[in-house]
Amino acid sequence: MSTKAQEVAFDRLLVDRFKGGDQSAFDEMVSRYWDRIYSMVNQLLRNSQDAEEVTQDAFIRAHRGLVNFRGESAFSTWLYQIATNLARNRYWYWWRRKRDKSVSIDAPFGADNDMTLADVIPAEVETPDDITVTQEFIDRIGVGMQRISVKHREILVLRNVKNMSYEEIAAVLGISIGTVKSRIARARESLRSKLGEDFK
Questions:
Q1: Cα separation values, 169 from 98, 165, 172, Å
Q2: Is the pTM above the cut of 0.85?
């Protein structure tokens, strides 16, 4: 049995113990994964205080959600996804708060849409090296956004940074919803071409 398989099996036992009412099982999960989750989040946010808060929040949410965890993925995968989503939300909250002061409006994508950091960050992040590459890639998206047309950049900012619905974008730009969808698709394709092989 591989080390990974052993970890998955041990986690499953801890989950079963927790669901059976053994609170100490969750304490063991925290001990096993705190440093790994913190390290990943800190690499993403580059801020130890935010990373600490997001890590705590990830475990709070895991504790709340574990009773409904069905085990379709490994516990570690599920936990990384929770932490990644929280980190992504924190990153974009920070970006929206700070953008007028220090970050160009031509910055990368926002949180809750089709093409977001979810496409950039692997679901299962195993090593800090993966995250380093991801952070570089996030930076490259910002550069890519500056290289696409104003029309394409505008629609991606409305959709992914402002988190507007198709209907809201249609109203703002005075175009049909169908045009909004096709323009977003073309804008993303343009951004992919500027980023070259990274998106393939």
A1: 23, 6, 5
A2: no
